[in-house]
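Annex B. Sample input.
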Amino acid sequence: MSMILREDIDDGIVIVTLNRPESLNALSPDLFVELNNSIQEISNQTDSVACVILRGAGRCFSAGNDLKAVGQGIKAKENFFQAKTIDLLENLPQPTIASVHGHCLTGALELALACDLMVTAESANLSDTHGKWGMVPGWGMSVRLPKRVGLLKAKEMMFTGLSVDGAQAVDIGLANKCVSDDNLLSETVELARKIVKNSWHTLFADKQLFINNSNQFHQNSLIFERNQSAKVASDMHQRVKTGFKS
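Annex B, continued. Sample output.
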């Protein structure tokens, strides 16, 4: 079964779905390979795709990094592959929207933050739990979260593991709007339709301007996070093991 589903709907809108509902769409190394392939394909389709929606199948957007894979020592296909895939998503020429319901934790939040816009359901639960597991950010949390919500709120979320719901995400500037769970997909598609009605030439130009305006500092910061931040805590594997038993 494919872990990434693609649905092309009308008006140049593509819905990309994380498809591991049995494991709450945990972000395994294999899922990232499929996601990377899908993003690269879409990046070359500016003649037919003008907006991308990223969502999760089943009960949530994603519970985050696949901790079972972490505990088993399963590695990505190359160093920083997940982070590079998230960078590819952020740098797509098309505007992107994260459509978030249920859990959106840690690595999943890092993935959602790479999207230009976010629509949350009332059930959304967004948080950074690196500290719970003795891990450190490597997929862009320390760079993208402060840019989205401000440094003060980002520090609170990262230091404490503070969880925010869909409505609170709007209040702190993490999301654009919060809607009922039943209407999440339809409202996200409606937002996408408003986007693609405009000139695609202008959409792609606007997106490139946003990327270029912050590119040098932003890229340097992402590389610093990957290469220079502290390694995982000495008790990380024990924390992960204990967490699955609790």
